[in-house]
Amino acid sequence: MEVKNQNTEQILLEVAESLFIEKGFAGTKTTEIARLAGVNHALLHYYFRTKENLFNCVFERIAAQMVGFISIAFEGDAPFFDKLQRAIEMHFDGLVTRINLPMFVFREVIRQKERKDYFLNQLFPVAKRVLARMHGDIKREVKKGTVRPVKAQNVLLNIAALNVFSFVAAEILFDTKDKQNAGALKVFLNDRKQNNVNTIINSLKL
Amino acid sequence: MEVKNQNTEQILLEVAESLFIEKGFAGTKTTEIARLAGVNHALLHYYFRTKENLFNCVFERIAAQMVGFISIAFEGDAPFFDKLQRAIEMHFDGLVTRINLPMFVFREVIRQKERKDYFLNQLFPVAKRVLARMHGDIKREVKKGTVRPVKAQNVLLNIAALNVFSFVAAEILFDTKDKQNAGALKVFLNDRKQNNVNTIINSLKL
Amino acid sequence: MEVKNQNTEQILLEVAESLFIEKGFAGTKTTEIARLAGVNHALLHYYFRTKENLFNCVFERIAAQMVGFISIAFEGDAPFFDKLQRAIEMHFDGLVTRINLPMFVFREVIRQKERKDYFLNQLFPVAKRVLARMHGDIKREVKKGTVRPVKAQNVLLNIAALNVFSFVAAEILFDTKDKQNAGALKVFLNDRKQNNVNTIINSLKL
Amino acid sequence: MEVKNQNTEQILLEVAESLFIEKGFAGTKTTEIARLAGVNHALLHYYFRTKENLFNCVFERIAAQMVGFISIAFEGDAPFFDKLQRAIEMHFDGLVTRINLPMFVFREVIRQKERKDYFLNQLFPVAKRVLARMHGDIKREVKKGTVRPVKAQNVLLNIAALNVFSFVAAEILFDTKDKQNAGALKVFLNDRKQNNVNTIINSLKL
DNA sequence: TATGAATGAGTCTTCATTCAT
DNA sequence: TATGAATGAAGACTCATTCAT
After folding, report:
1. Residue A164 domain-assigned?
2. Interface contact D106, partner C, CB < 8 A
3. A132-188, pLDDT tens digit by residue?
4. In this structure, are D16 and D106 located in the same domain?
5. Is the CB of A29 under 7 A from strand E?
6. Helices (H) and strands (E) in chain C — how many of each?
7. For position C37, which CATH number holds?
8. Do D195 and C164 touch (CB under 8 A)?
9. Nucleotide nearest to B54 (CA to C1')
10. CB-based contact (8 Å) between A170 and chain B?
C-alpha cells in the first residue's frame, strides 16, 4: 500500500510549469510531464482532465507569482534615488530565479486574448499602486528640481526593459546551462545590474 | 491557366516564416503551411523534405534579415548625440515592421545550441563593427567631457532593451490586431520612441 | 464483455509473423497487422513502438524456433542408417508446419548483416553439436567400411537442401492454398520424403 | 543537345531487375530505379507507365533467362554418368552468376498465382524435354543394371536442390559482399560442387 | 487514487503517378 | 523524349484522452 503523497497534483503542476515554459504549450507532451513527475500518465488527466486545463492552472500560478513579485519591489520610503536603486536591484535580483516568468509571458500568454486579459487584470491593480506611488515621488522630486519631468509609466517600463533584457541577452550570449560559463555569466549580470541602475538614475537626475 | 511554380518555394517560405513566428515550431503544422500557401501538402516536402529543414531555411532568412537590419542603424558621422538619436530612432522604426524578429529569436533560437551559435556567428561581425565605431565615438566624447565613461556594449544593449521591450509591452498592453486600437497604439509607440531617445541620451550626458 | 488484453501482444506477434513471412518487411503494413489482429492501430505502436522493432521481435522468435527445431532431429543412438533415416524424416516432417521458417530466413534475414550474424550465433552451437555427433558416427562407420568417407557438414547441408527444396518446389508446382490440390500435394511430398531418405542413404552406403 | 542514347529503356530494365531482386517489389522505389539509371523519374513512367508493369517486364526477362539457362545444362550424349556430371557442373557453374534468379523466384514469383502460372508455362516445355531425355537415359541404364530405378523428376529436383541450396547456404554462412571472404567462399563452393556431383551419382549407382 | 490498455484524430513523410512544357 | 513541378493516397508514428479494474 504505497503512500503516494497527497500532493501528486503539486508535483504535476511544477513539472508542467517548467516544461510549458521551456517548450511551450504545443511542444510539451502530457506523457513527458507525467513521466518526469513520476506518476502514471492517466493520472494527469484524472487530476486535470485536459492539457488545456492543466496549462490554465499553470498559467494562473505564474500570473500570480509574477504580479506578486513585481509588487514587492517598489515599496518603502527612503530618499527617492535610494529607493529607486533598491527597487531596480530587487527587481533584477528577483529575476535571477524567475527569468522564466517574463519568458513565459512573452511566449505563451501574448497570443491568447483571454489569457492576456486575465493576466492584465491581475497585473493592473498592483501596477497601479506602484505607479501611483512612483508618480507621487517623481512629482515631489520634480518640484524640488532634482528630477526631470517624466511619466512614471515610462520609468517603470524602462526598468523592466533593462532588467529583463539583461537576462534575455545573457541567455543568447552565454550557454547558461554550461557550468563553465558560470563565472563569466555572473560578471556579465553584475555589470548589467550596475549599468541598469546607473542608466535609470542618470537619465532622471537633473 | 494558373501562374504555377516560379516561386512556390518562396511562398512556402514566407507562409512558414509567419507561422513559425506566430506559433513556434511545434505549434505549426506543415499541412497548414501548405494550405495557406495554396499548394499541395506533399509539395512542401518536395521542396524542403522535412519540417525541420524548412524551419532551418526560415531561420537562416530571419537571421540574415535581423543582422542586416541591425547593421544599418549605426553608421554615419554627424555629431555624437545627433547620431545616437538617429540610430535609436532608426532601430525603433525598423522594429515596427520587424517586431517578430526578436520574438522569433527569443522563442525558437535560444534553445537549440547550434542555432544559437549560428545566429551569434552571423551577429558577431556586424555587432563588432558597430561597437568599434561607438567605442571610438564615446572615447572622444569622454575626453571632451561631454559624456560619462561607459562601455559601448552596455549602451548598445540598453538601446536594444528599450526599443524591443517597447514593442513587447505594446503587444501585451494592446490588442495589436484590433484596428480600433491603432490610434492609442501609435500614441504609445511614439511616446516610447521619444522616451527611449531621451533615456539613453540623458543617461550619458554630463 | 470482451476478453481484452491478456495476450494482445501475442496476437500481434503472431499476425505480424505470418504477414512478414508472407509479404516481407516492406510489403507488410502495420495497419494491416493491427486490423488482422483485431486491435487498434495505435496499440501496435504502444506495444512495439516501431515496425522495425516489431520485426525484430518476430525475427527473434523465429530464429529461436528454427534453431530449437533443428536441434531435435539428430539425437539418439540407434544404428547409423536407422538414425539417419529417422533424422531426415523428422526434419522433413518438422518442415510441414514450419516451411515459413527457412523462407523467412531466405527472404528477410540474409540481407541485414546484423540479423544474419545474430541468426548464425543462435544456430552455431546447435549445429556444432549435431555435426560433432554425426562426425563421430561417420568416422566409426567409415572404419567399419559401411560408409564412404564424407564430411559431416556436407551430409547436413544435403539433408537441409533436399528437404527444404522439396517444400519450395511444392510451393512453386502446386497452388498450395487451393484445398483441391491437397491430395496431389500430399502424394508429392511423400514421394519426396522417400526420395530424400533414399538419396542420402544410397549416396553414403558402400 | 545531349545524345541520351536510345536504350534508356534497357538501362531502366537492368537497374530495375537488380533492385527488384535485391529488395523485392515493395522494397524497391521507382525513384531509386530512375536515380541509379541516371534518368528523370517521370521518364520511367513514360516508358513503363506503372511500377507493376515495369516489374512484369523485368519478370519476363528473368523467367526467360531462367528457363533458357536451365535448358542448356542437360543435352548431349556422352555416357550417362559423364553426362550427368557435366550437367550438374554446368548447372552449378551457371548459378555462380545467376544466384539471384532462384532467389527472385522464391521471393517474388511464388505469391502471385498469375506470375507463377506464367513462369511454369515457360518452364514446362523445357523441363519436359530435359525430363524426357533423362527418363530415357535412366530407363536404359536401369535395364543395364548400372542405375537404381528412380524417377527422372526426382533426380532433377535433387540436382536443383543441392546446387541452389549450396549458394543459399553460402549467402547465409559468408558475407559474400566482403571481398576478404572470396578465398574461403571459393573453397566452399568448389567443395559443394564436388559433393553435389558425388551425392547424385553415388545415390544412383548400383 | 492509481494503472495498463485501448482508441481516434491527427501529423509528418513517402511514393507512384500525372501534367505542362 | 525529357523534365521539374504537382498531387492523391497511403503509411508510420504520436498523442491526448478514456476506460475497466
Report:
1. yes
2. yes
3. 989 999 999 999 999 999 999 999 999 999 999 999 999 888 888 888 989 999 999
4. no
5. no
6. 9, 0
7. 1.10.10.60
8. no
9. E12
10. no
Examine the domain organization and report whether A81 and A3 are in the same domain: no
CB-nearest to D27 from C24, C200, C204 is C24
What residues of B are in contact with residue A162 (Cβ under 8 Å)?
158, 161-162
Does residue B191 sit at the A interface (CB-CB below 8 Å)? yes
Residue B41 Cβ < 7 Å to strand E = yes
In the 8-state DSSP scheme, what is residue B205?
B
The residue among B9, B15, B65, B14 whose CA lies nearest residue B35 is B15
Report if CB B16 to strand E is under 7 Å: no
* Binary contact (D106, C109; C-beta < 8 A): no
Note whether D13 and D93 are same-domain residues. no
Domain count along chain C: 2
Neighbour count for residue D58 (Cβ, 10 Å) = 26
Domain-embedded: residue B54: no
Residue A178: the pLDDT is 85
- With residue C147 as reference, give the H or E element that holds it: none
Range of the domain at D13: 1-49
Distance CA D193, CA D162 (A): 9
**pLDDT surpasses 50 at A3:** no
CA-only gyration radius of chain D, Å: 20
- Is A3 touching B (CB cutoff 8 A)? no
With respect to residue A192, please indicate whether it lies within any of the assigned structural domains: yes
A44/A30 Cα distance (integer angstroms): 8
Please name every residue paired with A205 in a beta bridge, in sequence order, or none if there are none: A147
Residue C29 shares a structural domain with residue C70: no
Q: Mark yes or no for CB contact A195/B111 under 8 Å.
A: no
Domain identity same for B20 and B84: no
Answer yes or no: do C156 and C119 share one domain: yes
* Record: contact A106-B173, CB cut-off 8 A: no
Summarize pLDDT for A7-52 with one digit per residue, the tens.
899 999 999 999 998 888 999 999 999 999 999 999 999 999 999 9
Determine the Cα–Cα distance for residues D63 and D119; give it in Å rounded to an integer.
Answer: 6
Distance CA A17, CA B143 (A): 51
Give the pLDDT score at D71.
67
Q: Which nucleotide is nearest, taking the CA of residue A5 and each C1'?
A: E1
Residues B113 and B155 in one domain: yes
Decide: helix, strand or coil at residue A150: coil
Contact B102, B164 (CB under 8 A): yes
State pLDDT tens for residues D51-101.
999 999 999 888 888 877 776 666 777 899 999 999 999 999 999 888 888
C54 occurs within a structural domain: no
Same domain, C45 and C63: no
CATH number at residue C94: 1.10.357.10
